[in-house]
Design a protein that fits this description.
There is one protein chain. The protein is α/β, with parallel strands linked by helices. The protein has 2 domains: about 250 residues, Rossmann fold (3-Layer(aba) Sandwich); about 160 residues, Rossmann fold (3-Layer(aba) Sandwich), CATH 3.40.50. The protein contains 17 helices and 18 strands. The protein has a 6-stranded mixed sheet with strand order 6-7-8-3-9-10, sandwiched between helices. Strands 15-14-13-16-17-18 form a 6-stranded parallel sheet, sandwiched between helices. Strands 2-1-4-5 form a 4-stranded antiparallel sheet, with helices on one face. A hairpin with a 6-residue loop joins strand 11 and strand 12. Helix 5 packs antiparallel against helix 6, helix 6 runs parallel beside helix 7 and helix 15 packs antiparallel against helix 16. The longest helix has 18 residues. The N terminus is likely disordered.
Length: about 450
């Protein structure tokens, strides 16, 4: 019989209690984290925090003073450099050549891990090079001299080089450094596309917190050790960032956006609505139904807007519960992985009756929480305002598209039908947290 542990795939990259220093100066202290295959993770921290050192440890070019780095379950320092290069590619912050190499010649370097010194290029090498040039959008530059390119073009060529390696893991050290905003967005859009299409595992050190929030579903805040690790709504905490970067910041959601933004302090910062703006007759109480991270941006937006809210029931340990504990006026808790209890359902019903509105976030639907959707439908039929937060809905009038997105996360036989009945009862649909806030007005 095969054990469960044997059937579980090893992480793509794992740091296990890793420490490292230059001389007597510690740079990385007791770092433990894992990257699952196909994850896209942003590594944040100020200059000198040790981000580049951490990437070099991950690539095996530096050896930990303590701990171990594992590449697909194997100690990276027990693998040959060629084997490491077949599994992991690195896009450095600086890349320069002394000769007039063309773009194609630069990208051809990515095939070196697949050959020894005496072997000749094969047909699959030509295929991989052409595919890398096309994927990075630099095929039209193939015959240009690399040193004559702009910064953004060079960075795309470096990404093409790493793609030619055909390694499943990509480490990038400040891929958007020294680029104007157009090229920053182009590089990050490219990485997101490659992550989606090729299931490429990406770990990128970044300085721009706003771009990190937009493009990376998981962030690691790092300063010699891991300060925070999780989705943007958890990591981009004003208190944490102010401490780590040693400067005051504000965190909120800009008008019309669906991701967190980090701004300097000041009354004129354009974060959505100041406290109290949504409530003309006193404090508004909203009840949020969420789970599995589906409510993080909504709860953050409500808190930024000064709107008090309740949430739950949520399972202890759920990322939404962790955030609700910090931001909600009250939250209903259930044990980890437990279904909604009779007591929890009764508490949620009371919150919904007292609420000015109920916001149903796009949480996965299972036998344990489907009763909350039933309660939301009952509340709507009783005349309460119910808002469905559905960011992937094509339009508020496209019922079939909305129900299709619900069906993709419905693990019961009731979810889609309940949502259909909610729509037929004239509930409101918001395609963004900003739109949900407007519907509360």
């Amino acid at each position: 019989m095969v054990s469960n542990s044997a059937a579980t795939p090893s992480p793509a990259l794992a740091f296990e209690s890793v420490s490292f220093g230059y001389g007597a100066r510690p740079v990385v202290r007791d770092v433990t984290f894992q990257l699952a295959a196909g994850e896209m993770v942003g590594l944040l921290g100020p200059n000198g925090a040790g981000k580049s050192t951490l990437l070099r440890l991950g690539a095996g070019t530096l050896c930990p003073a303590r701990g171990v780095v594992r590449l697909h379950g194997e100690d990276v320092h027990r693998l040959s450099r060629r084997e490491v290069a077949r599994r992991l590619a690195v896009a450095p912050q600086e890349f320069s050549v002394q000769f007039a190499y063309t773009v194609r010649q630069i990208v051809e370097l990515g095939r070196m891990p697949h050959h020894d010194l005496l072997s000749m290029p094969q047909r699959e090498d030509a295929r991989a090079i052409e595919a890398a040039l096309e994927a990075a959008g630099v095929e039209h530059l193939a015959d240009r001299v690399f040193n004559d390119l702009s910064g953004g073009e060079k960075q795309r060529v470096i990404v093409a080089l790493t793609l030619a390696q055909e390694a499943p893991i990509l480490l990038l050290d400040e891929p958007t450094a020294h680029l104007d905003i157009r090229y920053q967005i182009e590089i990050l859009e490219l990485l997101r596309r490659l992550n989606g299409e090729r299931k490429l595992t990406v770990l990128a050190a970044l300085h721009d917190l706003n771009l990190a929030a937009r493009y990376f579903p998981r962030l690691i805040l790092f300063r010699e050790t891991i300060v925070a690790d999780g989705p943007p709504a958890h990591v981009l905490d004003a208190g944490l960032l102010s401490t780590v970067y040693e400067t005051p910041v504000r965190v909120g959601i800009l008008r019309g956006q669906d991701h967190l933004s980090v701004l300097p302090p000041g009354q004129d910062n354009p974060l959505v609505w100041q406290p109290g703006k949504l409530s003309s007759g006193g404090v508004a109480m909203i009840h949020v139904i969420a789970g599995g991270g589906s409510g993080e941006l909504m709860m953050r937006a409500l808190a930024d807007a000064g709107v008090t809210f309740s949430a739950g029931p949520l399972n202890a340990g759920d990322s939404d519960y962790t955030l609700a504990q910090r931001l909600a006026a009250s939250s209903i808790v259930e044990p980890p992985y437990a279904p909604v209890s009779a007591e929890g359902l009764a508490a949620a019903r009371m919150r919904m009756v007292d609420a000015r509105a109920i916001i149903l976030c796009p949480t996965p639907l299972g036998p344990g929480n489907i009763v909350l959707v039933e309660e939301a439908l009952a509340a709507r039929r009783a005349g309460h305002k119910v808002i469905l937060l559905e960011p992937t809905a094509l339009s508020t009038g496209d019922t079939d598209a909305l129900l299709a997105t619900v069906g993709a996360r419905d693990f019961t036989t009731r979810g889609v039908e309940l949502y259909r009945e909610l729509l037929e009862s004239d509930c409101l649909v918001a395609k963004s947290v900003a739109e949900a806030l407007q519907l509360l007005g």
